[in-house]
Specification:
Chain lengths: ~110, ~110
């Protein structure tokens, strides 16, 4: 039982490049989330999903797209990376009753 | 979603009891109060959740007054390893919206 796994753990992108971050959970959770955390700041919700095939915007969705084609996976895409997207990205999953969210280990992304 | 307000930072010494208060004046009837802990370079981890009065587990206690407009996370006899950021979240247990919004959190520094 791995919990929530994020791939990759580190990545350096050049401005304008694209990439996809993968979040996988093996707990059969309905809800999945993508957050970004800048140095010294709290977590900000980018996008989230309340079930397979659904996505919704969070607090800071601009510049990101997401997909939830399979219940266990939640993908975060950056179509044209910008230096302002340099951050640590966390994925989380939770049950429908929203009792406890489980977080991945984070992806440290640097855009140069 | 109910907005939460916490102190930005707190200092304590090893062995002391630490109380972190969170204000949530516009908490809704169905909202629960949840606290998370985050260590540097890690994702947040669930600590405790409650609806009213007092909840206690092996890690902390959560005190919620009758009007539920605030809550207090109590950490007994803290150690250096309790140095972390603590987040207070307020949300609907029914998970109707699915949103999980973090505020800025309280940075607790435990000194020897």
């Amino acid at each position: 039982n791995a919990g929530v796994t994020q791939t990759p753990k580190f990545r350096v992108l050049k401005t304008g490049q694209s990439m996809t971050l993968l979040c996988a959970q093996d707990m059969n959770h309905e809800y999945m989330y993508w957050y970004r955390q800048d140095p010294g700041m709290g977590l900000r919700l980018i996008h989230y999903s309340v079930g397979e095939g659904t996505t919704a915007k969070g607090e800071v969705p601009d510049g990101y797209n997401v997909s939830r084609l399979k219940k266990q996976n939640f993908l975060l895409g950056l179509e044209s990376a910008a230096p302002s997207q340099t951050s640590v990205y966390f994925c989380a999953s939770a049950t429908v009753m929203n009792t406890e969210a489980f977080f991945g280990q984070g992806t440290r992304l640097t855009v140069v | 979603l109910a907005k939460t307000t916490q102190p930005i930072s707190m200092d304590s010494y090893e062995g002391q009891e630490v109380n972190i208060t969170c204000s949530h004046n516009n908490i809704a009837t169905n909202d629960y109060i949840t606290w998370y802990q985050q260590f540097p370079s890690q994702g947040p981890r669930f600590i405790i959740q409650g609806y009213k009065t007092k909840v206690t587990n092996e890690v902390a206690s959560l005190f919620i007054p009758a009007d539920r407009k605030s809550s207090t996370l109590s950490l007994p006899r803290v150690s250096l390893s309790d140095t972390a950021v603590y987040y207070c979240l307020v949300g609907d247990m029914r998970g109707n919206t699915g949103k999980l919004i973090f505020g800025q959190g309280t940075t607790l520094q435990v000194k020897p």
